[in-house]
Design goal:
Blueprint: H1 3-25, H2 30-65, H3 70-89, H4 103-112, H5 115-127, H6 131-156, H7 161-185
Helix pairs in contact: 1-2, 1-6, 1-7, 2-4, 2-5, 2-6, 3-5, 3-7
Keywords: Cell membrane, Ion transport, Manganese, Membrane, Transmembrane, Transmembrane helix, Transport
Subcellular location: Cell membrane
Function: Probably functions as a manganese efflux pump.
Length: 186
């Protein structure tokens, strides 16, 4: 998997964290936005980096047994995650402006927005991806996008949240199809 594909995977995975950061950013005062942007970016970036690592090592042994159809596993995982994100983009959501967030609340959000990355880590094991560089890249992409999203939320409101999820889901679906085509026809 190329670095470009890993960056795109990072962008796709970061869209849940981006959407949450954007929505919460709408609720913060200008003074609090920078503080929360940094906290969200650190927590979301950490969990987005850690989950693929966990998924990779939980499935590394399994990969040797299913390498003949691993591309199908990667395709199905990315397709399911991507379709879920696209579906969620079209669901009506209320913005929860409860800004009395504790660190525990932010950690729970970090875990919740990174569960998809666990499944991507499983697919990385099948694709023989350099897991350390992939996790660092995904974490860095999520850090940057989450930080920016809090500030964007403060400025533009909720109009962009739907498109972030749609964009992220579409990227993951396209990557899944690309992996399948590469393994079937190349």
């Amino acid at each position: 998997m190329s670095i470009f594909s890993i960056i795109l995977t990072g962008v796709g995975l970061a869209m849940d964290a981006f959407a949450v950061s954007l929505a919460k950013g709408m609720c913060f005062s200008k003074k609090d936005a920078t503080k929360y942007a940094l906290v969200f970016a650190l927590v979301f970036g950490f969990f987005q980096a850690a989950m693929p690592f966990i998924g990779y090592f939980c499935s590394a042994e399994l990969a040797t047994y299913i390498q003949d159809f691993d591309h199908w596993v990667a395709f199905i995982l990315l397709l399911v995650i991507g379709l879920k994100m696209v579906k969620e983009a079209f669901e009506e959501k209320d913005v929860d402006c409860d800004i009395s967030l504790t660190m525990k609340d932010i950690i729970v959000l970090g875990i919740a927005t990174s569960i998809d990355a666990l499944a991507v880590g499983v697919s990385f094991a099948f694709l023989n991806v350099n897991i350390l560089s992939a996790c660092i890249t995904i974490g860095a992409v999520t850090f940057v996008l989450s930080f920016l999203a809090v500030h964007m939320g403060k400025r533009i409101g909720s109009a962009f949240q739907k498109y972030a999820e749609l964009f992220g889901g579409s990227i993951l679906i396209i990557l899944g199809v690309k992996i399948l085509i590469e393994h079937l026809f190349m």
